Amino acid sequence: MSSLSSSPHCRSYSSAAYPISSSCNYGHHRTAISSISLKQLLPRKVSVQSNTKARPNVVPSEDGAVVAPIENETPSNKLGDGLLSITLPEEFEDTTSFDINKDKSTVSITVVGASGDLAKKKIFPALFALYYEDCLPEHFTIFGYARSKMTDAELRNMISRTLTCRIDKRANCDEKMDQFLNRCFYHSGQYDSQNNFAELDKKLKEHEGGRISNRLFYLSIPPNIFTAAVRCASLSASSANGWTRVIVEKPFGRDSESSAALTNALKQYLEEDQIFRIDHYLGKELVENLSVLRFSNLIFEPLWSRQYIRSVQLIFSEDFGTEGREGIFLSLKYFDNYGIIRDIMQNHLLQILALFAMETPVSLDGEDIRNEKVKVLRSMRPLQLEDVVIGQYKSHTKGGVSYPGYTDDKTVPKDSLTPTFAAASLFIDNARWDGVPFLMKAGKALHTKRAEIRVQFRHVPGNLYNRNFGTDLDQATNELVIRVQPDEAIYLTINNKVPGLGMRLDRSNLNLLYAARYSKEIPDAYERLLLDAVEGERRLFIRSDELASAWALFTPVLKELEEKKIIPEYYPYGSRGPVGAYYLAARHNVRWGDLGLEQ
Ligand SMILES: NC(=O)C1=CN([C@@H]2O[C@H](COP(=O)(O)OP(=O)(O)OC[C@H]3O[C@@H](n4cnc5c(N)ncnc54)[C@H](OP(=O)(O)O)[C@@H]3O)[C@@H](O)[C@H]2O)C=CC1
Ligand SMILES: O=C1O[C@H](COP(=O)(O)O)[C@@H](O)[C@H](O)[C@H]1O
Question: Which of 23, 270, 306, 518 has the most beta carbons within 10 angstroms of its beta carbon?
């Protein structure tokens, strides 16, 4: 019998959505590995190995039966030698896929653009974190691919500078790093050369050693070379007998037309289910928690509509500008060509909005969730010029320190009108959200670094405490805040009585501050997304119809801003941004929830 490899951190469990799941140190994860489905096996006898530490994969035993790990072994199901025999009922028509060749399969991850900023800063560290947490498959190899000439040792040296170990458990860190680096290799090649990718293919095969090869390509390169790289990778380095998946980084075009052209080009070489468009905000812990909060707590879902919610605010701010950024920011003047609406709103904030506003999906399956998100996006009104305020930061001196303006950067044209700040009001024209303003605000070089979702509830009708108790309850309505970063938290602002013999009202927060509640370090978004891509879980990746709907909302206004050369409102570096944003909210009878905050 094939032995099932065990990881002390992996356990199996089952649920309707994720029938067989593994968990490394992150909590649950899905396994959707190609091979056979239970349906194909029925009504065959199934043997289950009672090894709680085993990975939850199913392998054939010598007599052809299927062997799977189980969580709990009882005397009644024990057959002997840790084996259990069950016959599956006919109605167990499950399409669950099991990896019948676990020991015979391998995953090769190729980081295309390995010499770049994102690869160094995020991708390799995330891969190491996955390895450190025992989340990568037993047989895996990592290849860096780029034009730069480098040896394996040089790549390892480069990567090692950005690897870190979890603060909460540094045990065996150096050892783990060495083991990880020994599984990293490099191949130098052009992005548009089939020959170079064929050479990579040869090297990958050597490492795969005859096992079933599953291949993941992470395109960490400028967008103008996405298609060439996909063409060459697909034609010359696709897996011959396993899966091939490609992670694509944003930007996915700069408007509806260019995005559609990119999608069509990718689809010449890849099926939709091979394309993993990454939006790293979807991998953030608190964004993942959004659906859990809403759908697993009775108290929220009934309030989640126009009836109780006055406005929803999606706020992103950074306390630094675009100066000094490396990688594509610097080399391709990316930001000046895209601006904050394309950089943050059309993707990160809109994705959060869609998750926030969607109807209950049929299940937690990736397609069911993405179907609901698309419906929200398709129900939205395309943005109008009057719904948008744009700004650009200018230089400012504070405490003797002088901060540069956006156009002071040598790589930015002096007359650039590119917005570094934008605020917008969006509407979802469906029964649940009719008339509720969804306000977005995103900016660079502001007074603070923060990303949060603020849900402002309506006032209490006929409120007994409306007057004379120290608080204007028409203003002091409940607010639910999901702080994505920093200091991840979920808190609800309520009105309460100030203790004492009198009757005075106060506002307080019921606060779930993650750092106080959990000692565990929160994984980086890239870790979650890379693991999902390896496991074939598509829930957090953007489907092409989602992308097209997202661009349809923003493209008209982006064109109008550019054609009419709308001048941005200038705001000092480190300020709260243009005052126009406050008027925009006021037009909808709303105040930005982050206004009163010190930081
Ligand atoms: N950096 C970041 O913080 C973020 C990046 N992204 C996206 O990730 C991808 C990679 O970004 P980043 O790492 O910053 O990019 P880089 O500019 O660092 O480029 C990555 C690699 O691509 C190669 N390259 C760069 N310019 C060209 C060119 N004109 N023609 C051919 N090859 C080129 C270089 O490798 P070599 O010369 O060795 O071939 C470089 O090391 C981009 O799509 C970007 O939009 C998304 C979010 C954040
Ligand atoms: O995608 C992008 O995100 C970063 C912010 O990401 P975060 O995880 O650090 O919040 C932003 O700086 C960059 O402009 C944008 O391209």
Answer: 270
Going by alpha carbons, the residue nearest to atom 13 of ligand 2 is: 343
349 and 494 in a common domain = yes
What are the pLDDT digits (tens) for 444-469?
999 999 999 999 999 988 878 876 66
Does the ipTM surpass 0.85?
Answer: yes
Q: For residue range 275-326, what is the model confidence (pLDDT) as tens digits?
A: 999 999 999 999 999 999 999 999 999 999 999 999 999 999 999 999 877 7
With a 6 Å cutoff on the Cβ, whether 452 touches ligand 2 is no
For the chain, the farthest-separated pair of C-alpha atoms sits apart, in whole angstroms, at 83
Among left, alpha and beta (phi > 0; psi -120 to 50; other), residue 327 is: left
- Ligand 1 contacts CB of residue 115 (under 6 A): yes
Calpha distance 417→158 (Å, rounded): 37
Evaluate whether 382 touches 434 at the Cβ level (below 8 Å). Answer: no
How many residues are present in the chain? 599
Between helices 124-132 and 173-181, what is the axis angle to 10°? 120
Can you give the pLDDT at residue 597? Answer: 58
Taking the C-alpha atoms of residue 64 and residue 59, their distance in angstroms, rounded to an integer, is 9
Q: Structural domain tally of the chain?
A: 3
| CA within 13 Å, CB half, 421 | 33
Q: Can you tell me which residue has the tokens 């598509």?
A: 538
pLDDT of 358 above 60: yes
CATH (domain of 432): 3.30.360.10
Domain membership flag for residue 420: yes
